[in-house]
Design brief:
It is a single chain. The strands form three sheets. A six-stranded mixed β-sheet has the order 6-7-1-9-10-8. Helix 4 crosses helix 6, helix 11 crosses helix 12 and helix 13 crosses helix 15. A hairpin with a 3-residue loop joins strand 6 and strand 7. It starts with 6 loop residues before the first strand and ends in a 22-residue tail after the last helix. The chain has three domains: about 200 residues, 2-Layer Sandwich (Alpha-Beta Plaits), CATH 3.30.70; about 60 residues, 5' to 3' exonuclease, C-terminal subdomain (DNA polymerase, domain 1), CATH 1.10.150.20; about 120 residues, Dna Ligase, domain 1. About 40% of the residues lie in helices and about 20% in strands. The chain is α+β, with helices and mostly antiparallel strands. The chain binds a DNA duplex through helix 9, strand 11 and strand 13.
Length: about 425
DNA sequence: TGGGGTTAT
DNA sequence: ATAACCC
């Protein structure tokens, strides 16, 4: 019988607020918002009951809810650390874990499901119970092996959520379906701390329930604007649009891709994220208009970044500076960046005590800045961001390197699927 | 409207 | 280097 894929999407509830409530349990039963600059970027459910929404301005949120408690969430370190704990926990079940932002993960559980299915068949057991909700209250047919696989998937999803709760004290939603798109969409149908499985017969109902095409993951702001030009407003419109018309507007590749999405079709694999591809740190502000200020801001950003890179253990080979210039019209789009290779003699200094590399890096970043901005003319920046990328492992010959310990830690195994990126946060002090 | 991330061109 | 996408 043709084995369908089984994918779980795990989506933590108001993640930053949950992390803050763990850090300070007294906030638990109070309305809590997490603030970045003038925004409440997320809030707990106590606050939501009182009318606070995600991405609401602080001013409006305090008007609606004067009792609202705000904590500053501009330093993402606690959230990032907890986020990777969740990904690593899921990695104990399957190596196929893909991160999406800090609070979502996809897990391909096809192999786990197949294993359990065979166990069930061997034991002659024909009774399987669904965990959580079934989308549309669709009836389950246990003679349908796809239904059985997805029901087993719902049990595994429940085990994921249980493990995340008992070991990390975090709650979240899960969606189970035959691909990433559907798993993600169905995970949001019952909201906090619940889970839902989608059976294939309800796929088109789920897609048509989306009232606007921008709710389809993969169709963003720009594509939505272009589709509106064509009179396409909802998923049904997109399904019905002649493919030739769509291809003319968006090109063959994107057109075919998003039209498949509109039918709930998505063959993209769950791609293990592994360790991060880049490390960046940014700050936004009202105004920065002199070279000296720019240098000061960069010097503020670097120590935190160098610390994170040194804990990672790899070395970056590229550095990038990004700026946003003030403009009254079109407020948040005008970002520019310049990047360059990091000179080899500096690369070697990553992971060592950071004091000797900071000033040469500032010099490089200021050169990149001058490539974008003529410092003899007036300028007005509202954001600065520094990003290190093109990360490479240390040469494996070096004793004491991560590669050395990784080989020690994972001998060739006959049975096991050990997760492959536990080393991401292996502390340096193993030396 | 934050402070991050990824992939495709 | 930018543009699109995601949270």
């Amino acid at each position: 019988s043709a084995a369908c894929r089984v994918v779980v999407h795990v989506d933590l509830d108001c993640f930053y607020a949950q992390v803050e409530m763990i850090r300070n349990p007294e906030l638990r039963d109070k309305p809590l918002g997490v603030q970045q600059k003038y925004l409440v970027v997320t809030c707990n459910y106590e606050a939501r009951k009182l009318g606070v929404k995600k991405l609401m301005s602080v001013k409006y949120a305090k008007e609606k809810c004067p009792q609202l408690i705000l904590v500053n969430g501009e330093d993402l370190t606690p959230y990032r650390e907890m986020s990777y704990k969740v990904t690593e926990l899921l990695g104990e079940f399957s190596p196929l874990v893909e991160r999406l932002g800090f609070d979502e993960n996809f897990v391909d559980i096809t192999e786990i499901v197949e294993k359990r299915l065979k166990q069930l068949q061997q034991s002659g057991c024909s009774r399987v119970c669904v965990a959580g909700h079934v989308y549309n209250h669709q009836a389950i047919n246990l003679d349908n092996t796809t239904h059985v696989r997805l029901v087993i998937g719902s049990q595994i999803a429940e085990e994921f959520r249980e493990a995340i709760y008992t070991r990390l004290c975090l709650t979240g939603c899960a969606g189970v379906a035959s691909n990433k798109l559907l798993a993600k969409l169905v995970s949001g149908t019952f909201k906090p701390n619940q889970q839902t499985v989608l059976l294939p017969e309800s796929c088109l109902d789920l897609m048509r329930s989306l009232d606007h095409i921008q709710k389809v993951p993969g169709i963003g702001y720009k594509t939505t604007k272009r589709l509106e030009t064509l009179g396409v407003r909802n998923v049904c419109d997109l399904q019905a649009l002649p493919s030739a018309v769509l291809e003319k507007e968006l090109g063959v590749s994107i057109a075919q891709h998003i039209q498949k999405l509109s039918y709930g079709e998505d063959d993209s694999p769950v791609t293990p994220s592994g360790p991060p591809q880049s490390f960046s740190d940014e700050d936004s502000f009202k105004k920065c208009s002199s070279e000296v200020e720019v240098k000061e801001k960069i010097e503020e950003l670097l120590p935190n970044l160098l610390d994170r890179i040194s804990k990672d253990g790899r070395q970056p080979h590229t550095v990038r500076l990004t700026i946003r210039q003030f403009s009254s019209t079109d407020k948040w789009f005008n970002r520019e960046s310049r990047q360059c290779p990091i000179p080899p003699h500096l690369i070697q200094k990553f992971g060592k005590e950071s004091s000797n590399i900071i000033s040469p890096l500032v010099d490089i970043l200021m050169k990149l800045f001058r490539k974008m901005i003529d410092v003899d003319l007036p300028f007005h920046l509202t954001l600065l961001s520094v990003c290190f990328s093109n990360l490479k492992d240390l040469p494996s010959s070096k004793k004491g390197s991560i590669g050395f310990y990784l080989k020690q830690m994972s001998p060739p195994s006959t049975s096991g699927k050990q997760h492959s990126y536990a080393f991401t946060f292996l502390p340096q002090e193993v030396e």
